[in-house]
Specification:
The complex is a heterodimer of chains A (about 300) and B (about 280). Chain A is globular, with a radius of gyration of 26 Å. Chain A is built from 14 helices and no strands. In chain A, α3 crosses α14, α5 runs antiparallel to α11 and α9 packs across α11. Chain A has a domain of about 180 residues: MetI-like (MetI-like fold). Chain B has about 280 residues and is mainly alpha-helical. Chain B has a single domain, classed as MetI-like fold (Orthogonal Bundle), CATH 1.10.3720.10. Chain B is about 75% helix and about 0% strand. In chain B, α1 packs across α14, α3 packs across α14 and α4 runs antiparallel to α11. Classes of the chains: A mainly alpha (about 300), B mainly alpha (about 280). At the A-B interface, α2, α3, α5, α6 and α7 of A face α1, α4, α5, α6 and α9 of B.
């Protein structure tokens, strides 16, 4: 087949650019499988979520249309605002730390001469683990009676069960689990900075920290904004590790937006109101994405 | 001054290795615990190394639990999700990249808008849909919502766009059908992208917790990540067994990563758009 793609054919290639009669039909056939799945499992549920949010539905039965009543209720719902605050607190504890740790790891790994891939693998490995393996590991390590932290420090803190420690501990576990990905992105960024740039800087007399300040850091900035963006969005979506480690406790202090939605739908069986939370959740994510897109495009 | 230049890199390298060791220590500790007896795992004076090492905990976990069934469920669903996702995305991306047809821009816009919608916001309507289709606790119920990946289309389309137009045109002039061009020219050319999307899709599907958590209630239908959360309740305070379960649950992805390390990292970079 590839043999037939010969140079002589290129002479007539202008004609071939015209869409053939059957092109529309072929395109439809090629798009149909994805389009069908997309409409059924993405577009339809999206519209359905909006529609359900305007009704008083249970989890499986559609209830009467109530207009914006759910949205009015949401605005005055202390539990929702608490969940939003908890989500924000988690984002505060993770977004910048995980970006900085990823950057430091990348700088450390990038300058290694030997065993570079090996050390990179050590840092990246947790990222490929399923969330429940991660939570089982840390529940064992931080177990207040038998865990290794207890054995080494004598601490009897119930890390996931106390008000002061629950959220920060989940944040630390999350950073351990996911930071390898940020490191990977930063390493890719570091590899894109050419040797010549560094050589020119050293000819100009830049040394040590100056090279980082004036060369590495500015050239890494696009990656940094990418990492911050991805981190912020993923921290707004936090649910599983929090659910498995604290269950939202103690006293709902770690119950985040998605868990509030999940509890409302699958525990209280209020599908309509839960859909309202889902729409609010989507709007918050959308707002954050748009603000970031605007900030990023202004920099260019 | 000169001495500092020699000492500092050595210290930095040493610190990096130490940090790397500390980073995987939780994994090593889980393996060590899983090889201990229950008495050693909870001994008041810390036992660092299992003495003697035994596979009793692993044996008990496999014999008592649903673990083999969960492996089967995870393998079947992840493989199907990966194959279908890659196939659907490659077909659609080829149409978007190489064919001209009516409504192309509107459709493309509709697909890319999908990237903005978080899957988490669709849980309730998706659950209702699957419930209406009697797909709760079925493979179809686990698989179907996971085969829609606008990002895969986006990555494929970018790759197809970069293939010189002349190749497509020349093949058309030679009378090859679009299907033949896709299958015989574009697919063979896209090996790296296929691997990248395939690996990332497989790992994400294997590790997905949220959707299986919503759609499966019977222990027999659970996937590995979900099943692992069940064993602690079943065993109470059997820590060696719990860690053996965690080790067995993490083993497939750890092995896959160690074997395909470069493919995995390149896959994630490709999907983020940092590598073509």
């Amino acid at each position: 087949m590839r043999k037939t793609v010969a140079v002589r054919d290129l002479a007539v290639s202008k004609k071939a650019g015209r869409p053939r009669k059957s092109a529309n039909f072929t395109a439809i056939l090629m798009l149909a499988p994805f389009l069908l799945a997309y409409l059924l499992f993405f577009i339809f549920p999206t519209l359905r979520a909006v529609q359900l949010s305007l009704t008083d539905s249970t989890l499986t039965e559609t209830g009467p249309f109530v207009g914006l009543a759910n949205y009015v209720q949401l605005l005055g719902d202390a539990d929702f605002w608490a969940a939003l605050r908890n989500t924000g607190f988690f984002a505060l504890l993770t977004v910048i730390p995980t970006t900085l740790v990823g950057l430091v790891m990348a700088l450390a790994v990038h300058r290694l001469v030997r065993a570079k891939n090996f050390v990179q693998a050590l840092f990246f490995l947790p990222f490929v683990l399923p969330v429940s393996v991660v939570t089982l590991l840390w529940q064992w390590i931080l177990n207040s009676s038998f865990g290794i932290v207890h054995a080494l420090t004598g601490s009897t803190t119930s890390w996931f069960g106390e008000l002061a420690t629950a959220m920060p501990t989940v944040a630390v576990v999350t950073i351990w689990w996911t930071v390898g990905f940020n490191m990977l992105l930063f390493i890719a960024g570091l590899q894109n900075i050419s040797k010549e740039t560094y050589e020119a800087a050293s000819l100009d007399g830049a040394q040590g920290i100056q090279v980082f300040r004036y060369i590495t850091w500015p050239l890494l900035w696009p990656i940094t904004t990418l990492v911050l963006t991805l981190q912020l969005i993923s921290s707004l979506k936090i649910f599983t590790q929090m659910y498995l480690l604290t269950g939202g406790g103690p006293f709902n202090s770690t119950r985040v937006m998605l868990q509030y939605m999940y509890d409302t739908a699958f525990q209280n069986l209020s599908g309509g109101y839960a859909s309202t939370i889902a729409v609010a959740f989507f709007l918050i994510i959308l707002l954050v994405s748009l603000v970031q897109a605007a900030l990023l495009s202004r920099r260019r | 001054m000169r001495r500092g230049h020699v000492v500092w890199p050595v210290v930095a390298t040493g610190a990096t290795f130490l940090l790397g060791f500390l980073w995987v220590f939780p994994l090593l500790w889980a393996v060590l615990t899983a090889l201990k007896s229950e008495q050693q795992a909870v001994a008041q004076s810390l036992v660092w190394f299992p003495n003697p090492a035994s596979f009793t905990a692993f044996r008990d976990v496999v014999a008592l639990g649903n673990l083999p069934r969960w492996y089967l469920n995870s393998t079947v669903t992840s493989l199907v999700i990966t194959l279908v996702t890659v196939a659907l995305a490659a077909l659609a991306a080829y149409a978007f990249s190489q064919l001209r047809f009516r409504g192309k821009n509107a459709l493309l816009w509709l697909f890319l808008a999908g990237i903005m919608i978080p899957f988490e916001a669709l849980l309730i309507p998706l659950f209702r849909l699957m419930n209406d289709l009697n797909a709760v606790n079925t493979y179809a119920g686990i698989i179907l919502p996971q085969i829609v990946s606008p990002i895969a289309i986006y990555v494929f389309k970018n790759f197809f766009d970069a293939i010189p137009k002349e190749i497509h045109e020349a093949a058309v002039v030679d009378g090859a059908s679009e299907w033949r061009i896709l299958w015989r020219i574009f697919v063979p050319l896209s090996g790296n992208v296929l691997w990248a999307i395939g690996i990332v899709t497989f790992i994400s599907a294997w590790n997905n917790f949220l959707w299986p958590f919503i759609i499966t209630t019977s222990p027999e239908m659970m996937t590995i990540p979900l099943g692992l959360t069940q064993v602690q309740d079943a065993y109470g305070v059997r820590f060696a067994r719990t860690m053996a379960t965690a080790v067995l649950g993490g083993l497939p992805v750890v092995l896959a990563y160690l074997i395909f390390q470069r493919r995995v990292t390149e896959g994630f970079l490709t999907v983020t758009g940092l590598k073509g």
